[in-house]
Amino acid sequence: MSAIRLLVLGAVRQHGRAHGYQVRNDLEYWGAHEWSNAKPGSIYHALKQLAKQGLLHAHEIAPSTAGGPPRTEYEITGKGTEEYLRLVREALTSYDQNMDVKSAAIGFMLDLPRGEAVALLKERIRRIEEWRSAVTEHYVPEGGPEQLGHIGEIMNLWVHTADAEAEWTGGLIERIEGGAYTFAGEGEPFVGVLAEGEENPYATGERHPGDAR
Amino acid sequence: MSAIRLLVLGAVRQHGRAHGYQVRNDLEYWGAHEWSNAKPGSIYHALKQLAKQGLLHAHEIAPSTAGGPPRTEYEITGKGTEEYLRLVREALTSYDQNMDVKSAAIGFMLDLPRGEAVALLKERIRRIEEWRSAVTEHYVPEGGPEQLGHIGEIMNLWVHTADAEAEWTGGLIERIEGGAYTFAGEGEPFVGVLAEGEENPYATGERHPGDAR
DNA sequence: CCCTCCCTAGTCAAACTTGACTACCTATGG
DNA sequence: CCATAGGTAGTCAAGTTTGACTAGGGAGGG
Lengths: 213, 213
Prior knowledge:
Chains A, B: It holds the Pfam family PadR. The first copy, chain A, is mainly alpha-helical. Chain A has helices at residues 3-15, 20-29, 32-35, 40-52, 78-93, 99-108, 114-139, 152-177, and strands spanning 18-19, 56-60, 72-76.
């Protein structure tokens, strides 16, 4: 699963109606150009792709009001909302993923009801543990793990990483169950996009730490 | 950095001389089709690319001895060996990476001298800690971390992940400094490829746990 | 002897990603 | 009043990845 579809769908959805440059700005506001592969080309490509698949509706619009070429505005469709929620659920649940998917999942989790988010995170832990025991049981040869030599270090890395993720997930579950944050249906939804004309406090130039290069 | 170049260079290098299907089999033997993006198309593409860049030398060969289309054999060049070692060093050092790069780095680290491997891993820890403090210092707004709301959980994830990796790296350094494994120049090098005709004990069909789906 | 299945070895189109590039408009300083 | 820097909005070619597909040969069963 690539994070870009989720990010773009989520941005358009929070906006209600947005053109490509707005989405691009939101993702930059979120720092996503640094912790995900959200480059201009990918964003415009994703918008076109999503429109082609009926997840976004494209409005052809007259030349921009603020200079530059004419622009296309997008709105999320019913099918798109379904897909968005499906992607959020998948990102929260599955242990398949890169940092960008996980980060996006957390950013969007408030769009689910609190109970469901907790259930999905518990399922996540279950899958991590399942995977962990598959590693330890399947790969350890008869004669003990020493037989593997340095290759055993790879499994060690996998197990260590899995444990750390399970632990972090557990902490998050506790905080959510303890009443933290405002989930779907509990009040004003959290909106993290830039309004028309609002300036981006995290605009380019500054070096952000999400950047793992 | 994508893991595929490193994996393919490493496989050809251990073989001395190999055609695409052999590389494919080695990667399957290593389980790489499950913990990396090593699909047939990617492997053949990488081989051609590496040959074009002068990192591999391609021998055009007559029709296969065992059925199927004619095949091309590859050998690593001097430039290719340099690039291979550069990639191993980079993979060991940088905190940029996905599981596949890390796993490959461990698999190949014995091709470096012991002292260098330790130095690179220490540098890795230094970079992780640098990144960690960049996250905590840069992203925490005035008014405390509570201001961020659920977005703070993303930074929490990053920090937690960084700490886990630093810890794991530290453990690996200790074991290496304690004399574990046989590094470059210390004796018979470790060879993890299938000989001609040798059967792959991890052949397809079985489900491997590296598969994180 | 023939049919089917599987292994060998690889190709290919479609989708996705990357990074550089274009074109237009506004504000600003000299 | 002019040029020039910078923001707006997006395109494009080149490179990479994916997953399905091809085509030939041998093994084994009936």
